[in-house]
Amino acid sequence: MKKRILLIAGLLAFCIAGQVMLGGGRSGYAAALDNEKITNILDTKDLTTKDSKSFNTGSLQDKLVQQFALMLLLVAVFGAGAWLFCRKMSGRRGTSRGRNITITETASLGPRKLLHIVRIGSKQFLLASTPENIRLLSDVTQVLDETDNPS
After folding, report:
1. Distance (Å, rounded) from C-alpha 125 to C-alpha 117?
2. Where are the domains positioned within the chain?
Protein backbone atom coordinates (compact mmCIF):
# COMPACT_ATOMS: atom_id res chain seq x y z
CA MET A 1 0.00 0.00 0.00
CA LYS A 2 2.85 2.39 0.83
CA LYS A 3 4.44 1.67 -2.54
CA ARG A 4 1.28 2.72 -4.35
CA ILE A 5 0.99 5.92 -2.31
CA LEU A 6 4.61 6.76 -3.09
CA LEU A 7 4.01 5.99 -6.77
CA ILE A 8 0.95 8.26 -6.88
CA ALA A 9 2.82 11.03 -5.04
CA GLY A 10 5.68 10.72 -7.53
CA LEU A 11 3.25 10.88 -10.44
CA LEU A 12 1.65 13.99 -8.97
CA ALA A 13 5.06 15.66 -8.48
CA PHE A 14 5.99 14.71 -12.04
CA CYS A 15 2.79 16.28 -13.40
CA ILE A 16 3.30 19.48 -11.40
CA ALA A 17 6.91 19.74 -12.60
CA GLY A 18 5.77 19.19 -16.20
CA GLN A 19 3.11 21.86 -15.85
CA VAL A 20 5.63 24.36 -14.49
CA MET A 21 8.12 23.51 -17.23
CA LEU A 22 5.48 23.96 -19.93
CA GLY A 23 4.58 27.38 -18.58
CA GLY A 24 1.34 26.59 -16.80
CA GLY A 25 2.59 28.21 -13.59
CA ARG A 26 3.16 31.67 -15.12
CA SER A 27 1.98 34.88 -13.55
CA GLY A 28 -0.91 36.91 -14.95
CA TYR A 29 1.44 39.35 -16.71
CA ALA A 30 3.36 36.58 -18.49
CA ALA A 31 0.13 34.88 -19.51
CA ALA A 32 -1.19 38.19 -20.90
CA LEU A 33 2.01 38.58 -22.94
CA ASP A 34 1.59 35.05 -24.29
CA ASN A 35 -2.04 35.77 -25.22
CA GLU A 36 -0.92 38.95 -27.01
CA LYS A 37 1.72 36.98 -28.94
CA ILE A 38 -0.86 34.37 -29.95
CA THR A 39 -3.24 37.11 -31.10
CA ASN A 40 -0.47 38.69 -33.17
CA ILE A 41 0.39 35.35 -34.75
CA LEU A 42 -3.23 34.66 -35.62
CA ASP A 43 -3.67 38.16 -37.10
CA THR A 44 -0.70 37.87 -39.48
CA LYS A 45 -1.13 36.75 -43.07
CA ASP A 46 -0.43 33.21 -44.15
CA LEU A 47 3.27 32.51 -43.58
CA THR A 48 3.40 29.78 -46.22
CA THR A 49 2.77 32.03 -49.24
CA LYS A 50 5.30 32.28 -52.04
CA ASP A 51 6.65 35.60 -50.74
CA SER A 52 7.64 34.22 -47.35
CA LYS A 53 9.01 30.74 -48.02
CA SER A 54 12.31 31.68 -46.42
CA PHE A 55 10.47 32.59 -43.19
CA ASN A 56 9.57 29.06 -42.06
CA THR A 57 9.03 29.01 -38.31
CA GLY A 58 6.03 26.69 -38.30
CA SER A 59 2.52 27.52 -37.35
CA LEU A 60 1.09 27.66 -33.88
CA GLN A 61 -0.94 24.55 -34.60
CA ASP A 62 2.16 22.58 -35.55
CA LYS A 63 3.90 23.65 -32.36
CA LEU A 64 0.90 22.67 -30.26
CA VAL A 65 0.64 19.27 -31.94
CA GLN A 66 4.36 18.72 -31.41
CA GLN A 67 4.12 19.70 -27.74
CA PHE A 68 1.07 17.45 -27.26
CA ALA A 69 2.88 14.52 -28.90
CA LEU A 70 5.93 15.06 -26.68
CA MET A 71 3.75 15.13 -23.57
CA LEU A 72 1.98 11.92 -24.67
CA LEU A 73 5.36 10.28 -25.20
CA LEU A 74 6.56 11.48 -21.81
CA VAL A 75 3.44 10.16 -20.07
CA ALA A 76 3.73 6.84 -21.93
CA VAL A 77 7.38 6.43 -20.90
CA PHE A 78 6.55 7.35 -17.31
CA GLY A 79 3.58 4.95 -17.30
CA ALA A 80 5.68 2.11 -18.66
CA GLY A 81 8.32 2.79 -16.02
CA ALA A 82 5.69 2.84 -13.26
CA TRP A 83 4.19 -0.42 -14.55
CA LEU A 84 7.61 -2.10 -14.61
CA PHE A 85 8.42 -0.74 -11.15
CA CYS A 86 5.15 -2.06 -9.68
CA ARG A 87 5.59 -5.40 -11.41
CA LYS A 88 9.14 -5.73 -10.11
CA MET A 89 8.30 -4.61 -6.57
CA SER A 90 5.14 -6.68 -6.16
CA GLY A 91 6.96 -9.97 -6.46
CA ARG A 92 5.37 -13.11 -7.77
CA ARG A 93 2.43 -14.19 -5.66
CA GLY A 94 0.42 -16.81 -7.34
CA THR A 95 0.51 -20.38 -8.36
CA SER A 96 4.02 -21.30 -9.31
CA ARG A 97 4.72 -24.40 -11.36
CA GLY A 98 7.93 -26.33 -11.63
CA ARG A 99 8.72 -29.86 -12.73
CA ASN A 100 8.58 -31.49 -9.30
CA ILE A 101 7.58 -28.65 -6.97
CA THR A 102 4.25 -26.81 -7.17
CA ILE A 103 2.89 -24.11 -4.90
CA THR A 104 -0.76 -25.13 -4.79
CA GLU A 105 -2.06 -22.40 -2.47
CA THR A 106 -0.83 -19.23 -0.76
CA ALA A 107 -2.53 -17.29 2.04
CA SER A 108 -1.44 -13.97 3.49
CA LEU A 109 -1.27 -13.62 7.28
CA GLY A 110 -0.24 -9.97 7.24
CA PRO A 111 2.32 -7.73 5.66
CA ARG A 112 5.01 -9.94 4.14
CA LYS A 113 3.92 -13.03 6.13
CA LEU A 114 2.59 -15.92 4.07
CA LEU A 115 1.47 -19.53 4.38
CA HIS A 116 2.10 -21.85 1.43
CA ILE A 117 0.93 -25.34 0.62
CA VAL A 118 3.64 -26.90 -1.51
CA ARG A 119 3.29 -30.19 -3.40
CA ILE A 120 6.50 -32.15 -3.91
CA GLY A 121 5.71 -35.29 -5.84
CA SER A 122 2.79 -36.90 -3.98
CA LYS A 123 3.45 -35.16 -0.65
CA GLN A 124 2.11 -31.78 0.49
CA PHE A 125 3.75 -29.52 3.04
CA LEU A 126 2.63 -26.40 4.91
CA LEU A 127 5.33 -23.70 4.89
CA ALA A 128 5.45 -20.28 6.56
CA SER A 129 7.51 -17.53 4.97
CA THR A 130 8.67 -14.11 6.10
CA PRO A 131 11.31 -11.90 4.49
CA GLU A 132 13.89 -13.32 6.90
CA ASN A 133 13.18 -17.06 6.78
CA ILE A 134 11.06 -19.96 5.54
CA ARG A 135 9.90 -22.63 7.96
CA LEU A 136 8.35 -26.07 7.49
CA LEU A 137 5.28 -26.25 9.71
CA SER A 138 3.82 -29.64 8.88
CA ASP A 139 3.37 -32.47 6.43
CA VAL A 140 -0.29 -32.05 5.45
CA THR A 141 -0.57 -34.81 2.85
CA GLN A 142 -2.97 -36.99 4.89
CA VAL A 143 -5.06 -34.06 6.15
CA LEU A 144 -5.63 -32.65 2.67
CA ASP A 145 -6.31 -36.12 1.18
CA GLU A 146 -8.96 -36.74 3.85
CA THR A 147 -10.70 -33.41 3.19
CA ASP A 148 -10.63 -34.02 -0.58
CA ASN A 149 -11.95 -37.59 -0.26
CA PRO A 150 -14.32 -37.80 2.75
CA SER A 151 -15.25 -41.48 3.14
Report:
1. 6
2. 2-90, 96-148
